Amino acid sequence: AQKITQTQPGMFVQEKEAVTLDCTYDTSDPSYGLFWYKQPSSGEMIFLIYQGSYDQQNATEGRYSLNFQKARKSANLVISASQLGDSAMYFCAIRTDKLIFGTGTRLQVFP
Amino acid sequence: DVKVTQSSRYLVKRTGEKVFLECVQDMDHENMFWYRQDPGLGLRLIYFSYDVKMKEKGDIPEGYSVSREKKERFSLILESASTNQTSMYLCASSLGGNAGRVKTQYFGPGTRLLVL
Question: Is the torsion defined by CA of B22, B108, A44, A37 positive or negative?
């Protein structure tokens, strides 16, 4: 069975600073995908970034990058130059045959 | 862009009522999913469907059923709503096929259901 762990229930960061949101996973499947989603207070889940288990390079999407350390089974999300609009819940997820979510980290960006 | 819509953003129902939550996607995705989201528990998969008229139980199917008569529409049904089904319900869709395991799921805006 696969499992996702997000140990930070909440994080604070000042505007324009970088922040790292932690995610560790566990799976015995050699082929899997790792995802990060953002959920603002409006409720919708917004796909941010994807990393495949066989991808050699860390995924990047604009200000988002995924620090993928396969041996340590970690897939941390790095947000550079935080903006006030980044305040939201962030969920890490792993997909083998189905998508399993972590419990999320609430990020608050302050001016 | 993928668009996934859900019929209601907010819904209030009474215990014992039959509740229908509708989800429609416009990208011809094969796979559709229903999740519920509760504080501290993250998202949990209720049911999913890989094709029209096909359905599979997720992790917490008890008290729910689903219907997929058309490819673009996936309905979640609470046969007799109970207070412990008060939650946020999220629908998602993704491409299918053999590479389906790494396909991104796109979510709708969610329905906040309150059962009194």
Answer: positive
| Model confidence pLDDT, tens digit, residues A37-76 | 999 998 889 999 999 999 889 999 999 999 999 999 999 9
Angstrom distance (rounded) from CA B27 to CA B24: 10
Instruction: Please check whether residue B99 touches A, CB under 8 A.
Output: no
- Cα A87 versus chain centre, distance: 14
* Residue among B1, B101, B112 with most chain A CBs within 10 A, to mutate: B101
Tally of CA atoms within 13 A in the half-sphere of A34 that contains its CB = 32
Interchain pair B105, A103: CB under 8 A: no
Residue B93's SS3 state is: strand
